[in-house]
Write a structure and sequence with these properties.
The complex is a heterodimer of chains A (136) and B (146). Chain A has 136 residues and is mainly beta. Chain A has a single domain, classed as Immunoglobulin-like (Sandwich), CATH 2.60.40.790. Chain A has 1 helix and 10 strands, in the order βαβββββββββ. In chain A, strand 9 and strand 10 form a beta hairpin. The radius of gyration of chain A is 19 Å and the shape is elongated. Chain B has 146 residues and is mainly β. Chain B has a domain of 89 residues: Immunoglobulin-like (Sandwich). Chain B is 13% helix and 36% strand. Chain B contains 1 helix and 8 strands. In chain B, strands 1-2-8-7 form a 4-stranded antiparallel β-sheet, with no helix packed on it. Chain B has a 3-stranded antiparallel β-sheet with strand order 3-4-6, with no helix packed on it. In chain B, a hairpin with a 2-residue loop joins strand 1 and strand 2. Chain B is flat. The chains are: A mainly beta (136), B mainly beta (146). At the A-B interface, strand 3, strand 4 and strand 7 of A face helix 1, strand 1, strand 2 and strand 5 of B. Strand 7 of chain A pairs antiparallel with strand 1 of chain B.
Chain lengths: 136, 146
């Protein structure tokens, strides 16, 4: 079974521009924790993005680079002061370079309970094909 | 005569510049910089004299499966996050998200009124409001004129 699933490369994209330029928004940027798994027909990307809903997400596919940006809202209770902090408040950003074996038109994204799910269907050629053998 | 030769740089500008420099250095050495949080879920706490608000980042969990308990001034959150089961022939390329059971306890700033603790969950963020126990509130003492 395993050798039927053809590996599709998903590489973390290093953006050299990030190192020389600065963002305009004055907020930290975090790289969201990500799981990626591959099934026979698609590649599934799961990202932990607490505080993010469908309105605060920005997903762009430019050439072969898929960039996910999210701008979560944070609760700042009135008349309270922050006494203890384990997580910082900031945006999420991460990009991946897709191989040509992904069907770009078929990419689907959904966000639920602060987890972004991206479904990247494999293009026809990368899908395992069964060849039936006729008796004869 | 004292002459100030240099303008004193604004301390906040200087700190900001240092932070940017450090960030850049970090990026050079650790390109895959993640959210460095050794614990799950990460929690923040806000206080004032009437109570405490605790927020926890627990994305992708059924809110009814989160257990919250308060004993005196210790808050405990526990639950389980299950990741999708893979069928045969499917496999992970990356696994960075925490999975399995978790339990966290934190000490609150003061004892709370357990009956009035209120919790809500939205977009993967759990928010727990804990009002301060009546017995623990500061009392004003009036000074009488003799």
């Amino acid at each position: 079974m395993t050798d039927q699933t053809k590996t599709i490369e998903v590489k973390q994209e290093n953006l050299p521009a990030e190192q020389t330029t600065e963002r305009i928004r004055d907020r930290r940027v975090y790289s969201p924790r990500t799981d990626i798994y591959e099934t026979a027909n698609e590649l599934v990307v799961l990202m932990d993005m607490p505080g993010v809903d469908e309105k605060s997400l920005d997903i762009v596919l430019e050439k072969n680079i898929l960039t996910i940006k999210a701008f979560p809202a944070f609760l700042h209770p009135e008349n309270h002061s922050l006494a203890y902090a384990e997580y910082g408040e900031g945006d999420f950003e991460r990009s991946f370079s897709l191989s040509s074996e992904i069907n770009r038109e078929g990419i689907e994204a959904s966000v639920k309970l602060g987890v972004l799910t991206l479904r990247l269907p494999k293009a026809g050629a990368a899908k395992p094909q069964k060849i039936s053998v006729k008796a004869g | 005569m004292i002459v100030r030769r240099y303008a004193i740089p604004n301390a906040w500008d200087e700190l900001g510049r240092m932070q940017r420099d450090l960030d850049q250095m970090m990026r050079a050495f650790v390109p895959d910089r993640g959210r460095v949080t050794p614990v799950f879920p990460a929690m923040n706490a806000w206080t004032n004299e009437d109570g405490e608000i605790v927020t926890a980042e627990i994305p992708g969990i059924d809110p009814s499966a989160i257990e919250i308990s308060v004993v005196n001034d210790v808050l405990t959150i526990s639950g389980e996050r299950a990741l999708p089961e893979l069928a045969e022939g499917e496999r992970y390329h990356r696994r960075e998200r925490m999975n399995g059971k978790f339990t966290r306890s934190i000490q609150l700033a003061f004892p709370v009124n357990v009956d009035k603790v209120d919790a809500s969950y939205e977009n993967g963020v759990l928010t727990i409001a804990l009002p301060r126990a009546e017995a623990d509130r500061p009392r004003k003492i009036a000074v009488k004129n003799a």
